[in-house]
DNA sequence: CGCGACGTTGATTTGCCTCAACGATTGTGG
DNA sequence: CCACAATCGTTGAGGCAAATCAACGTCGCG
């Protein structure tokens, strides 16, 4: 079995252990895909047609505003799930981009296969429920930070929460994620070196 | 059957229709509860022990920072679900408050009953998966707004998205939700009257 | 009636942005 | 393999968005 599938099955097993039949089904319906740096997993206007598990590498999800400025909504590194739920479920054109920041390998399942998987193996309803609940908690904490903390506090919490990400991702991208300019992030970092 | 349960069952049926056995089970495990204005459904330090469906009324979920200031994370009116997922699943003390802003009626299920419901009736894994996915989409859009739009734009989008909420909730509370001061919200509103 | 929550206004301050400029690094095509 | 472009991080001057602080009128409610 391709080693990629091992990391996916490990991810599922963290919540409710799969039977060997279910593991087999996972290998059947998920397919491997590779992305080059700057390759697009999703572009504005496309309809998001698959649920994606990142095996290795790193992606950013962002929207582009009317001034052409990018705003990073989330990052996804290995062992993470990423997709545009709104586009996926409503089957409408996405307003978002998902772009590889490193050469990356993913496993994808398409819409119809996922619906059939839910019906054939109820455990996946449960596993995907828990996956999205975990992501929901992260979003809720992030919302609380953005409405209550200064940019400086938010940057420190980001570094504390994702120390490995901070080393892999350019500060420009982190600034976009925090909702501040790269210049201002640079000033925050300088200020903290002196202390 | 208590009319409260009708609105809950309608909510479930919107996604995947319940059988009469499942409807019966819902009536068995969910219990009605009433809250006065300013009554607490959850307080900091409590462990969140139930998943709550709002039948009527309105709640705010908020955190209190080190300066004693409240920050509204979300509102929940009738036909909405509310809970602190982090506290509920990790069974740890919550950092949040959930407080009734109007006299309110809810239906609640406690932790163990929910776990049993998931196991006995797989459809609830699916329904609750979809419920949380919808809430996830809302959070994602909100994050995008907070990192990309000005306070004025965010206020207008809030009013457009929730015109009925804007009439029921004091501006002080909306300001807290938007992450701005009541004074500044007042100035935004004044400016738009003139135009 | 009197108190507390609410909404408003103005003066001042501050956090963060814009714009411009500059080296250092990375990447890429010839 | 080099040359050149693009990306990245940094710095400073100036400006704007939003916070702070203080004051005041209104309203609903106990």
Structure description:
The structure is a homodimer of 195-residue chains. With 195 residues, chain A is α+β, with helices and mostly antiparallel strands. Helix content of chain A is 52%, strand content 23%. The first copy, chain A, is built from nine helices and eight strands. The first copy, chain A, has helices at 3-13, 20-29, 85-90, 111-120, 123-148, 151-161, 163-168, 171-178, 182-194, and strands at 31-35, 40-42, 50-56, 58-64, 70-77, 80-82, 96-100, 104-110. In chain A, the strands form two sheets. Chain A has a four-stranded antiparallel beta sheet. A four-stranded antiparallel beta sheet of chain A has the order 2-7-4-5. In chain A, helix 8 crosses helix 9 (182-194). The longest helix of chain A has 26 residues, at 123-148. Chain A is globular, with a radius of gyration of 18 Å. The relative contact order of chain A is 0.15. The mean pLDDT of chain A is 95. The structure holds a DNA duplex (30 and 30 nucleotides).
């Amino acid at each position: 079995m391709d080693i990629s599938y091992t990391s996916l099955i490990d991810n599922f097993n963290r919540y409710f252990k799969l039977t060997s039949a279910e593991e087999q089904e996972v290998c059947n319906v998920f397919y491997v895909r590779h992305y080059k740096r700057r390759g697009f997993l999703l572009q504005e206007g496309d309809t998001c047609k698959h649920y994606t598990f990142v095996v290795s590498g790193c992606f950013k999800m962002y929207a582009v505003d009317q001034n052409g400025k990018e705003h990073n909504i989330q990052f996804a590194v290995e062992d993470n799930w990423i997709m545009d739920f709104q586009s996926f479920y409503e089957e409408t054109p996405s307003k978002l981009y998902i772009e590889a920041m490193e050469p990356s390998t993913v496993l994808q399942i398409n819409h119809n296969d996922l619906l059939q998987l839910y019906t054939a193996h109820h455990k996946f309803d449960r596993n995907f429920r828990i996956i999205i609940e975990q992501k929901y908690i992260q979003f809720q904490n992030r919302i609380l930070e953005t409405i209550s903390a200064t940019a400086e506090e938010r940057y420190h919490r980001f570094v504390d929460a994702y120390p490995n990400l901070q080393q892999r991702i350019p500060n420009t991208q982190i600034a976009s994620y925090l909702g501040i300019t790269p210049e201002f992030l640079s000033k925050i970092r300088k200020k903290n070196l002196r202390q």
